[in-house]
Design goal:
Helices cover 13% and strands 37% of the residues. By secondary structure, it is mainly beta. The chain starts with 6 loop residues before the first strand and ends with a helix.
């Protein structure tokens, strides 16, 4: 069974309009929390997620490790799309 992330809550935690970077913390349906770091190249450009980090309050839902892993990078685009639908762009 393939992992299908579902974002239930998203919140913008920091925004730097000078360089176009902002961070969004998302909570997934399986109680996993992740931090997404977005970049905007120009003022009117659509943002894209450059990094995703799983916050270490729950084991990884994919590999079940309780420490740093890179499993969420495979689902970065899907999680990013859902998060931007909830919070929009700053």
């Amino acid at each position: 069974m393939a992992y299908q992330p579902k974002v239930i809550k998203a919140e913008i935690v920091s925004n730097n309009p000078k360089n176009g970077l902002f961070e969004v913390v998302v909570n997934l349906k399986d109680r996993t929390s992740c931090r997404l770091i977005y970049e905007k190249k120009a003022d009117n450009a659509t943002p894209f997620a450059s990094h995703i980090n799983r916050l270490l309050n729950e084991p990884c839902p994919i590999c079940r490790k309780d420490f740093l892993c890179d499993c969420m990078t495979k689902y970065k685009e899907d999680i990013s799309e859902q998060a931007l639908e909830l919070v929009g762009t700053p």
